[in-house]
């Protein structure tokens, strides 16, 4: 497995694989901003928006690849606001359900930290589902809880869920 930073052309080239990854994640209950039923137009629009954001340099699309198969992905939003040159936000860590528990999520998060350093970011922020696998991974990697927001969003089936906001300082 290797970790790659996709540009907008890479995202377009791997559009089907990225779409399948998102659909798999939502069907397995991931709380990544989408609900069921998930239509192809919504998925396509989402990845086109990500590619546009990558193209203008406001986010990085970091992917785990094995034999040209996209196994996982995460995004690093570089907070282009004038008062936030030190900050970045982590979005949508996704690992295909057939490849979970193999260290892919951890590898992606370690690359997030390296890319944040490369872009002179020292504060990372994210939110994740309370009591989920993501929260356990982030805590293991040294992330600190900032707070919990009850009923912050709904799961793919419409059930209200709490989110945990987390932060990590990196050097």
Summarize the structure in short.
The protein has helices spanning 8-13, 15-27, 40-55, 104-118, 133-140, and strands at residues 2-6, 59-66, 69-77, 87-95, 123-129, 144-154, 160-169. With 171 residues, it is of the alpha+beta class. It has a seven-stranded mixed β-sheet with strand order 1-2-3-4-5-7-6, sandwiched between helices.
CATH superfamily: Gcn5-related N-acetyltransferase (GNAT)
- By CATH reckoning, the class would read Alpha Beta
Number of strands: 7
**CATH architecture classification:** 3-Layer(aba) Sandwich
Global Rg: 15 Å
Distance between the termini: 26 Å
Please estimate the helix content: 25-40%
Lateral arrangement of strands in the main beta sheet: 1-2-3-4-5-7-6
Which band does the percent of strand residues land in? 25-35%
Low-pLDDT residue spans: none
Task: Work out the helix count.
Answer: 5
Structure description:
The protein starts with a strand and ends with a strand. It has one domain: 3-Layer(aba) Sandwich (Aminopeptidase). Strands 1-2-3-4-5-7-6 form a seven-stranded mixed sheet, sandwiched between helices. It contains five helices and seven strands, in the order E-H-H-H-E-E-E-H-E-H-E-E. The model has no long low-confidence stretch (mean pLDDT 96). Helix content is 34%, strand content 35%. The chain has 171 residues and is an alpha+beta fold.
Which descriptors would you attach to this protein?
single chain, 171 residues, alpha+beta, Aminopeptidase, 7-stranded mixed β-sheet, 7 strands, 34% helix
SSE layout and pairings?
Layout: E1 2-6, H1 8-13, H2 15-27, H3 40-55, E2 59-66, E3 69-77, E4 87-95, H4 104-118, E5 123-129, H5 133-140, E6 144-154, E7 160-169
Parallel strand pairs: 4-5
Antiparallel strand pairs: 1-2, 2-3, 3-4, 5-7, 6-7
């Amino acid at each position: 497995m290797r970790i790659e930073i996709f540009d907008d052309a890479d995202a377009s080239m791997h559009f089907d694989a990225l779409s399948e990854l998102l659909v798999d994640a939502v069907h397995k209950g991931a709380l990544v901003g989408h609900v069921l039923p998930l239509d192809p137009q919504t998925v396509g629009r989402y990845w086109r928006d990500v590619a546009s954001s990558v193209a203008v340099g406001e986010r990085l699309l970091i992917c785990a690849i094995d034999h040209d198969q996209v196994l996982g992905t995460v995004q690093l939003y570089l907070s282009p606001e004038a008062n936030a040159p030190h900050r970045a936000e982590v979005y949508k860590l996704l690992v295909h359900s057939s490849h979970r528990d193999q260290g892919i999520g951890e590898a992606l998060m370690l690359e997030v930290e390296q890319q944040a350093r490369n872009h002179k970011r020292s504060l990372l922020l994210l939110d994740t589902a309370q009591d989920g696998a993501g929260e356990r991974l982030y805590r293991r990697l040294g992330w600190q809880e900032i707070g919990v927001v009850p009923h912050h969003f709904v799961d793919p089936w419409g059930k209200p869920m709490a989110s945990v906001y987390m932060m990590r300082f990196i050097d």
